[in-house]
Structures are given as structure tokens and as C-alpha cells.
Write a structure and sequence with these properties.
Oligomer: single chain
Largest sheet: 6 strands, antiparallel, barrel
Number of helices: 0
GO biological process, one term: complement activation, lectin pathway
CATH topology: Thrombin, subunit H
Organism: Todus mexicanus
Radius of gyration: 20 Å
InterPro entries: Peptidase_S1_PA, Peptidase_S1_PA_chymotrypsin, Peptidase_S1A, Trypsin_dom
Number of domains: 1
Protein name: C1R protein
GO molecular function, one term: serine-type endopeptidase activity
Helix content: under 10%
CATH architecture: Beta Barrel
CATH superfamily: Trypsin-like serine proteases
Number of strands: 10
CATH class: Mainly Beta
Order of helices and strands: EEEEEEEEEE
């Protein structure tokens, strides 16, 4: 469809009127193609910026946690506001040995991050909501899955892109 700007400053097309089509970035297709990488952690090689634009770093800082008050996990960007991660990343063992979900106020999500030691260049977001699988079992890690809703949407681009999901 071809759009023109009318006298009122509204984009119009003959086919769609003022309804603009949605534009979704192509998922899982890094701007920088992956060279023949050996897909392993040990004995592999360092990834370069942009190779995994859906990768998220989840940082939890909770002073009541045992033994550490700060820990990291990983996630995958599903859309401009949702990240998929493991439920165990978002659980906290307290000093009294109870295990409870972490508070959303203690979680920060980083995207477009290449080096975890340098977060200045990354896109960071606070969390609006955490959803843990209701049957998650900390003993055997069954149902170890969670969703994190970002408080503010991220802008898609070369270094921030959602992971591909199957189409049904």
C-alpha cells in the first residue's frame, strides 16, 4: 500500500484508509550473521556484538538472600516487553532457609549487552511483573520457567531483537 500525508497530517492509503499496518522485526535473524561457530561453551569462541540480539542478562540484587545478595541469570527476549527465563533465577533463599519469589523491585534486565563487565552501553529495564510457573519445584527444577514483563518497552534494532518462536 502507498501512504500519503493528508491536509490534517494523517497518513492514508486507498486500501487501508488511516489504519497503519503493523511492523514486526524479523525474529532471530541477527544483523551480523553467525560465522561457522562451533556451538559450545567450553572450547568455543567469544561471540561478537549482535550475534545474539535476543539474549538478556537478568540481575537480581536482594540483601536478604543467602549466601549472595546479587546473582545473575539469562533470558530470551520474546517481544518488546516480555523476557523468558528460568524460574530458579527469580527465587530467593532467605536467611531462615525459606525460598520465596524475588520482588520485582530487585530485578534489572539488560539487553544489547556484549560484555557483562561493562553495562554502560546496554539497554536496561526495570520489571513490571514476574510470573513463575505455578508448579515450579526448587528441589528437582521441574517446570523451571518464568516470564518477566518489562516496565518500559524496548526499541527493536540491530542489537535488540526477539527470539524466534514456532508459528502454529
Amino acid at each position: 500500500a502507498t501512504y500519503t500525508c493528508d491536509a490534517l497530517g494523517v497518513w492514508r492509503s486507498e486500501e487501508l484508509g488511516t489504519k497503519l499496518p503493523s511492523c514486526q522485526p524479523v525474529c532471530g535473524r541477527p544483523a551480523r550473521p553467525l560465522p561457522g561457530i562451533i556451538k559450545r561453551i567450553i572450547g568455543g569462541r567469544n561471540a561478537e556484538p549482535g550475534f545474539f540480539p535476543w539474549q538478556a542478562l537478568i540481575v537480581v540484587e536482594d540483601m536478604s538472600r543467602v549466601p549472595n545478595d546479587k546473582w545473575f541469570g539469562s533470558g530470551a527476549l520474546l517481544s518488546d516487553s516480555w523476557v523468558l527465563t528460568a524460574a530458579h533465577v527469580l527465587r530467593s533463599q532467605r536467611r531462615d532457609k525459606t525460598v520465596i519469589p524475588v520482588s520485582k523491585e530487585h530485578v534489572t534486565v539488560y539487553l544489547a549487552l556484549h560484555d557483562v563487565r561493562n553495562k554502560m552501553e546496554a539497554v536496561n529495564r526495570t520489571v513490571e511483573r514476574i510470573i513463575l510457573h505455578e508448579d515450579f519445584d526448587i528441589q528437582n527444577y521441574n517446570h523451571d520457567i518464568a516470564l518477566v514483563k518489562l516496565k518500559e518497552k524496548v526499541t527493536m534494532g540491530k542489537y535488540v531483537m526477539p527470539v524466534c518462536l514456532p508459528q502454529f
